[in-house]
Amino acid sequence: MAIERTFSIVKPDAVAKNVIGKIYSRFEEAGLRIVASKMLQLSREQAGEFYAVHKERPFYNDLVDFMTSGPVMVQVLEGENAIAKNREVMGATNPKDAAPGTIRADFAETVDENAVHGSDAPETAKVEIDFFFPEGVCERLR
Ligand code: RTP
Ligand code: MG
């Protein structure tokens, strides 16, 4: 299995709860390396474009409100099978369905405010990394 990169967000609820470090530890414990990272405040344009795939869904406006409600951490994670591994570590979209020990089970309360985002496929990972890190991401460090 080749080394892969995926895009991740620590959402405003988790930043407000002061658990960025705890969530980063979950990534590291799963063998994912943080190879780029920054804190930023999403504009409505950025959040709307990022979640454009959900534009017709009933929760879209609430999702944009939530994602712009405070700062987020955005990061690129690298590792074997990183996209699937990150989704595994995150847990199910609804924290009530998330397996014990996953980030959403441990740090999220509701499906609307669910602590983290992770890319769901190689194509979306590439688009999302380029969207948030247009300046580029370092080559492998080792
Ligand atoms: P994400 O894109 O944030 O990583 O989450 P996901 O793949 O697990 O879930 P997705 O279906 O892509 O939904 C994106 C985000 O929209 C919010 N959502 N709310 N109220 C609802 O029924 C509902 N469903 C989805 C969540 O914040 C979800 O993470
Ligand atoms: Mg998604």
UniProtKB/TrEMBL annotation:
Cofactor(s) needed by this chain: Mg(2+)
GO biological process, any: GTP biosynthetic process
Enzyme Commission designation: 2.7.4.6
List of residues binding ATP: K11, F59, R87, T93, R104, N114
Binding partners and assembly: Homotetramer.
Function: Major role in the synthesis of nucleoside triphosphates other than ATP. The ATP gamma phosphate is transferred to the NDP beta phosphate via a ping-pong mechanism, using a phosphorylated active-site intermediate.
Name used for this protein in its record: Nucleoside diphosphate kinase
Organism field: Sedimenticola selenatireducens
Gene: ndk
